[in-house]
Write a structure and sequence with these properties.
With 273 residues, this protein is of the alpha/beta class. Helices cover 40% and strands 16% of the residues. The strands form 2 sheets. It has a 7-stranded mixed beta sheet. Strands 5-6-8 form a 3-stranded antiparallel beta sheet, with helices on one face. The protein is elongated, with a radius of gyration of 19 Å.
Length: 273
Amino acid sequence: MWGDVTPAERLRAVTRRGVDEDRLAVEAADALAGFASEPASLVVACRRVLAHHRSCGPLWWVCARILAAPDAARGAREASQLLETDRTADRLGATLPLLDEDQVIAVVGWPDAVDLALVERLDLAAVALRVEGSDPAPALRRRASTRSVRIVDAWDPALTDIARFLVPAAAIGPDHCLVPTGTADALDLLGAAVREVWVVGGVGRVLPARLYDVVRQAAVASVDDLSDDGSRVEELAIGRVDCIAGPRGVQRASDAASRSDCPVVPELLRPLD
């Protein structure tokens, strides 16, 4: 596809493409592999793509892993493969419990991982929760299954017994995670109706504190800021979360949030141009 295009031209094209965060991270990893033989150029390339997508957690994860790898080209391939083979949806689908009558799974927005997790779980009644930072309607139009999903608001009187409240995370740090704006208010409003809160964060979402702080500052610098996919985000304390669903399965929130597989690379922490 790329033919004789130079690594710099390919990276420029990837940087400007309008794709979701996971796809951006995969394509960036492939493009950055072209700089593997020139360490100084690789650092510049990583910093350049991050300057355009400061709030993309998976992209920081990719760049950090590539720069910390003994073999940058291999590091890029491994990062791309891990993203492409993310098993979060499979693990989530296998772990969601059977529901009692009148119980539902409430999903903030309708993230791809949840959509795929529920493809074969037709036994589960699920609703898509609309909050300020996430409208589920566009995602539901392209959902993988033909299941009927009702869009609701947190004040809907039918939401009296929510077995699992699933929240997509743009990034997860040791103490907080970035979730769609309005999630905390929805939890406050629903109160005891929510039995457990599960944050859904796939490969590249769990970051060490120093990288998470950079992503957080870029994503919530002001109330008008948008994440790379156009949705508003806010911080949610890990203390309000029961579990985190990721590629290793569903784990206790405090355990999963503290187990980042992303190194801290000082070269990436200098102010971005």
